[in-house]
Specification:
CATH topology of the domain at 3-12 and 76-216: Fumarate Reductase Cytochrome B subunit
Structural class: mainly alpha
Order of helices and strands: HHHHHHHHHHHHH
Largest sheet: none
Bound molecules: protoporphyrin IX containing FE
Shape: globular
Radius of gyration: 21 Å
Helix content: 55-70%
Oligomer: single chain
CATH architecture of the domain at 3-12 and 76-216: Up-down Bundle
């Protein structure tokens, strides 16, 4: 096994470990952080089922973003939709045979890499040209977009312009999945694509990308508006 394969095998497992540990500890932190005050954003649901429906609307349709900014909503929604399709299409690298549930999505070509890249570009430009967003943007806001664009561009290059050997990519990925390391494909563009994905995994738990899990714990969205019907008492106050 070459030194590069050895390095990337170790790098991948370390990146996955950092991602899983970081993601789960942050979710644990969100779940165990007390929310002693009733602060649902009104008009808010008055039944728990309504709060669940509200979260579903946020996660499925980015509802509050829709009402606050249609352009950012369109770009953000398109990006997340494309990301989901891209990830489902990637399932074929991780399973010996593509899961039946994903067959339909692998049967048509919709230039999904471009549909993922263009909204990222737009979001990047909007941050620069709109004064209000420029003012509140920090370097990491731009760098995350650059990282995602880098992944999309190298993916597109690998797929349409400098075709990589998909068979050796699959062997390499399956080797990682089954913990019997296989040679890293000798394709620089693929190696950059893969490296950027690993960097994304490592950075994910420390970044605002944690909104992917954090949205479920947002008190302004998940609380029921019932302070007039129920006395809301936190566990520690009830004990005292
Ligand atoms: C271990 C993880 C990954 C591996 C091994 C991998 C590998 C590949 C390969 C081999 C291609 C070319 C596809 C083809 O020829 O059909 C590709 C395309 C692409 N990848 Fe990845 N990738 C990984 C993760 C990701 C992630 C996490 C993203 C997004 C954040 C991503 C975004 C893309 C995009 C946008 C394309 C081009 C569009 C398309 O599939 O139509 N990749 N990737």
């Amino acid at each position: 096994m070459s030194g590069l394969t050895l390095f990337y095998t170790a790098f991948t497992y370390i990146a996955i470990a950092i991602f899983l540990y970081g993601f789960l500890t942050r979710i644990w932190k969100y779940a165990t952080t007390p929310s002693p005050l009733k602060i649902p954003l009104t008009p808010a649901p008055v039944q728990p089922a309504g709060a669940v429906y509200r979260i579903i609307q946020e996660v499925g349709f980015f509802k509050s973003l829709f009402y606050s900014n249609r352009i950012i909503w369109l770009a953000g929604y398109l990006f997340h939709l494309a990301l989901a399709i891209v990830l489902i299409k990637h399932a074929r690298f991780f399973f010996a045979s593509t899961p039946v549930a994903f067959h339909w999505i692998t049967t048509f070509e919709i230039w999904i890499g471009f549909i993922m890249l263009l909204p990222l570009l737009l979001l990047f430009l909007l941050r620069l040209v709109i004064d209000r967003t420029y003012y509140i943007s920090i370097m990491m806001d731009y760098l995350i977009l650059v990282l995602l664009m880098g992944i999309a561009v190298t993916g597109i290059l690998t797929k349409y312009f400098v075709r990589t050997d998909i068979v050796s990519v699959k062997q390499f990925v399956m080797g990682l999945v089954q913990v019997r390391p296989e040679a890293l494909p000798a394709d620089p563009i693929f190696i950059i694509h893969f490296t950027l994905v690993m960097l994304l995994l490592i950075y994910f738990p420390f970044s605002k990308l944690m909104h992917a899990g954090g949205i479920f714990f947002s008190p302004t969205r998940n609380q029921v508006d019932d302070p007039r019907e129920l006395r809301h008492e936190t566990a520690w106050a009830a004990k005292g």
